[in-house]
Write a sequence for this structure.
């Protein structure tokens, strides 16, 4: 009887999980893939075929955009790690007890501010009539208003800005768990600052680094607002193509194919990243 | 209806198997009303499993458990009148002291005024009348301990189980709590079953102690019986300190066995009742340090018939106040411990002194191996 | 380590870097918030003086956010969606936590990874895939039974489902982490003191999880509130605030009323995030 109750409660606990995953993740993705393999041959007549994927391959704009999105996302991820790691290390290991809590809070509080507001803030700062341009004119450094928006550098800066906290927060938690004595022992045994960093700190923080990188990469590759608002019409971000196919052209078949391609491409990058660093999804993202 | 001689707890042929492992192996015992009973054994001996079966968290594979003369095998844990103090106490951190103690009473649906009265009573009895409104994390280790006991005692259990509750305390507090637990048990006059791997806890507090090893009870008895008359080699080795030799019986005369150790020493030991020692048998010998006297050897050898003697050289003196010892290197190179009195005068033994160790054959415990 | 001069210089440089980073972090938010108080029709310099008109004024051209019907409606829909997503995802997050911490079933690790996946699927894809599925079902029903399933067309329900689909991973992780810290013997202690299984759950286990559940609920609400990518594809006529703001930005251009909303959202979400951090930090440890 005891084991019957146990089995029943297991089933009851499994039900919400199964419903969620099956109805909202698995089934929609199958539907999306099925839709992407459908070709329109006449109004309201469809056939199975790889036409949408062939279109993608034949049109350089499409795959160029995907490659561009992918490579810029990798760049953003790398920059976020490069800029974020020292910040996380400072918060976790160098700051005093009191300022540590305060600094971490400063990172946590704006974590969930909308991309829209962040991008809006940058627009106010960087546009032709914006704060930066006005300020530079006032100092006399320039005599004409300058447009800082609508170029790739701004897009990258904006993206790094949007996602960097998702890098810092898991890194702080990981580094926080590191025993200071490990670093001290590293120095004590004759390591230089660089060796200690390379041989002790980074290997220890690896799960946090990988976790941060995965989340940041996925957020960047899937972002929509920041590239469009800061990069303007020519930002050529792949999510924009998906939106275009779905909403503007109402070509759902091709949009679904693009969606699947984005998913496959980003998953491939993440899989490669996990492979290269020898981590798994379960011991990285799950821990953050 | 309940006769006075019904034991509070009786276990009969209790067994518990986890897969192929027999954690508890045919254990039988009964605990008389109002006594302090300890189960002492090394970690992994099955004592926690035994306790969890009594509390109802595990079902025995076979055997029976009677509480106040009634089998509880089919009673779920929340209906057994056996309360338990957990190893890490398991006080509820999201409730204050009062709520922790009132928890069980609320579960049985007692009315508020009565709960209030009972909680106040039990807090008085554990001499912590004013802590009701404190949070758990504001209490000291010893106070937590007492609250954990009060939380159980307020329910008037037939038996209180304590699962190594002193383990987490520091040494000083542990010593104080030993005495306190004993006093609390007297005060509540409830049967306590105390599980521990720390022999001094078991010996100091208990009326009776069961020594458990590999799922079986080796011996049940009063603390002094276990110490002075261990019935198995395991008990002799586990309870108290002892010097140990293995050897062979080379002679038997008038109930005194002559044993030659593997290293060639000869010792005499009095044969105790019920212990089967035959000539030619391999045996292990245990001698407690406090029964060995160490004195400077002055050349002459005064071996009387009932006195064992060994010559050796003091290797080091382990000063520990009243419990000081010397480590003596015997003729075959082994180290022997003997209690000594260190007075600080010049008569004290020092490292390098030649000494003679003596002990009586009555204090030589010999077990067949 | 000796505190040499170069070491000190390094530390100073390090500190400056930290300061620079936090300025970088704050700058756009400060810019977005500050212009809400500029008495001008455009959110740009020069500073024309302090005003609260962009919050409270009730006439055009300076219509304040608290009198702007469409913004208020967006706020209202966002709040409704947020509450629904938060409630649902905390519930499923809690059952998931029990499932993965207490449950014992085949391929548990595999399912655990499946549970994490929604977090790393781009939000756009979640949006379109759910849109495709819902439309397929609705179209199928319409074709076959000539009956319109209104709720499967873009609208609040789809937005809620879309956000719920990945927010649940976040709540599950937060609540699982807390449940893992739970000392199992506390449940046994409660049983031992005479509580029934249901009483144990209600009086011991759930109160222990409560801080994590509250924090997870707040985070779920915030994520839902700020979500754009998934929502974009699923939204019907009831636009939540981010969509409304985006429309306004695209059609009307930036106006200070958007700064007022930004200020409101920055402060509001900051406070909620602060509460969630405090709730978790003050939770009793074991």
């Amino acid at each position: 009887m005891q084991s019957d109750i146990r089995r029943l409660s297991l089933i009851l606990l499994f039900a919400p999980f199964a419903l969620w995953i099956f109805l909202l993740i698995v089934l929609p993705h199958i539907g999306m893939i099925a839709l992407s393999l459908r070709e329109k041959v006449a109004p309201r007549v469809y056939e199975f075929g790889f036409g949408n994927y062939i279109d993608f391959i034949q049109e350089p704009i499409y795959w160029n955009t995907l490659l561009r999105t992918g490579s810029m996302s990798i760049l953003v991820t790398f920059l976020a790690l490069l800029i974020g790691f020292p910040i996380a290390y400072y918060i976790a290991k160098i700051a005093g007890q009191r300022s540590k809590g305060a600094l971490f809070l400063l990172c946590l509080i704006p974590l969930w501010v909308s991309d829209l507001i962040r991008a809006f803030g940058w627009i106010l700062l960087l546009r032709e009539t914006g704060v930066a341009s006005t300020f530079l004119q006032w100092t006399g450094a320039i005599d004409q208003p300058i447009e800082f928006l609508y170029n790739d550098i701004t897009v990258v800066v904006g993206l790094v800005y949007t996602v960097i906290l998702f890098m810092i927060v898991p890194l702080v938690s990981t580094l926080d768990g590191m025993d200071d004595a490990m670093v001290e022992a590293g120095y004590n045994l004759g390591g230089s600052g660089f060796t200690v960093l390379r041989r002790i700190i980074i290997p220890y923080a690896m799960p946090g680094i990988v976790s941060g990188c995965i989340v940041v990469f996925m957020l960047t590759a899937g972002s929509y607002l920041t590239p469009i608002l800061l990069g303007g019409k020519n930002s050529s971000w792949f999510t924009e193509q998906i939106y275009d196919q779905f909403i503007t052209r109402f070509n759902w078949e091709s949009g679904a194919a693009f969606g699947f391609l984005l998913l496959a491409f980003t998953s491939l990058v993440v899989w490669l990243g996990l492979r290269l660093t020898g981590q798994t999804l379960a011991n990285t993202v799950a821990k953050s | 209806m309940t006769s006075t001689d019904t034991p509070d707890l009786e276990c009969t042929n209790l067994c518990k198997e986890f897969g192929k492992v027999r954690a508890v192996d045919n254990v039988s015992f009964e605990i008389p009303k109002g006594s302090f009973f300890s189960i002492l054994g090394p970690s992994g001996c099955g004592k926690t499993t035994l306790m969890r079966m009594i509390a109802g968290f595990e079902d025995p594979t076979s055997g029976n458990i009677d509480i106040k003369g009634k089998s509880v095998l089919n009673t779920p844990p929340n209906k057994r009148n056996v309360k338990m103090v957990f190893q890490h106490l398991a006080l509820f951190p999201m409730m204050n002291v009062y709520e922790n103690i009132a928890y069980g009473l609320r579960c049985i649906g007692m009315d508020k005024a009565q709960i209030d009265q009972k909680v106040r009573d039990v807090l008085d009895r554990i001499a912590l009348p004013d802590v009701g409104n404190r949070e758990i994390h504001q209490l000291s280790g010893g106070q937590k301990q007492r609250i954990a006991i009060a939380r159980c005692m307020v329910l008037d259990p037939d038996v209180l189980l304590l699962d190594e509750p002193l383990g987490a305390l520091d040494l000083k507090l542990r010593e104080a709590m030993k005495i306190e637990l004993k006093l609390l048990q007297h005060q509540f006059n409830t049967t306590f079953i105390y599980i521990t791997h720390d022999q001094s806890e078991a010996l100091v507090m208990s009326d009776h102690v069961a020594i458990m090893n590999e799922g079986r009870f080796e011996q049940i008895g009063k603390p002094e019986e276990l110490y002075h008359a261990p019935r198995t080699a395991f008990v002799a080795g586990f309870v108290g300190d002892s010097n140990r030799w293995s050897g062979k019986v080379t002679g038997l005369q008038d109930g005194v066995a002559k044993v030659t150790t593997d290293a060639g020493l000869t010792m005499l030991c009095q044969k105790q009742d019920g212990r089967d020692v035959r000539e030619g048998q391999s045996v292990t010998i245990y001698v407690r340090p406090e029964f060995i006297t160490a004195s400077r050897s002055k050349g002459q050898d005064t071996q009387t018939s009932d006195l064992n003697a060994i010559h050796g050289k003091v290797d080091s003196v382990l000063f520990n106040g009243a419990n000081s010892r010397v480590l003596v290197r015997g003729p075959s190179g082994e180290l022997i411990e003997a209690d000594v009195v260190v007075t600080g005068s010049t008569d004290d033994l020092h490292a390098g002194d030649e000494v003679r160790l003596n002990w009586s054959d009555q204090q030589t415990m010999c077990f067949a191996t | 380590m000796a505190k040499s001069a170069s070491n000190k210089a390094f530390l100073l440089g390090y500190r400056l870097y930290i300061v620079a980073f936090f300025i970088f972090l704050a700058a756009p938010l400060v810019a977005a918030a500050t212009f809400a108080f500029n008495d001008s029709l455009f959110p740009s310099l020069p500073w024309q003086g302090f005003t609260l008109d962009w919050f409270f004024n009730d006439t055009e051209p300076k219509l304040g956010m608290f009198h702007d019907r469409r913004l208020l409606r967006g706020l209202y829909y966002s709040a409704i969606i947020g509450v629904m997503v938060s409630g649902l995802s905390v519930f499923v997050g809690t059952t998931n936590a029990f499932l993965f911490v207490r449950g014992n079933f085949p391929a548990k690790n595999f399912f655990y990874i499946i549970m994490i996946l929604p977090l790393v699927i781009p939000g756009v894809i979640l949006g379109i895939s759910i849109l495709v599925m819902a439309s397929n079902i609705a179209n199928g029903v319409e074709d076959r039974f000539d009956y319109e399933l209104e709720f499967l067309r873009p609208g609040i329900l789809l937005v809620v489902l879309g956000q719920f689909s990945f927010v649940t991973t976040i709540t599950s992780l937060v609540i699982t982490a807390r449940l893992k810290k739970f000392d199992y013997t506390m449940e046994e202690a409660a049983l031992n003191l005479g509580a029934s299984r249901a009483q144990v759950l209600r009086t011991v286990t759930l109160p222990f999880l409560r801080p994590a559940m509250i924090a997870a609920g707040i985070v779920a609400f915030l994520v839902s509130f700020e979500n754009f990518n998934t929502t974009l594809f699923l939204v019907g006529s009831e636009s939540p605030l981010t969509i409304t703001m985006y429309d306004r930005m695209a059609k009307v251009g930036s106006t200070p009323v958007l700064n007022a909303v930004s200020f409101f959202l920055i402060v509001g979400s900051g406070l909620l995030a602060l509460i969630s951090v405090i709730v978790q930090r003050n939770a009793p440890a074991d």
Summary: Chain C touches chain A through 84 residues (CB under 8 Å). The CA atoms of residues 18 and 24 of chain C lie 10 Å apart. The mean pLDDT of chain C is 87.
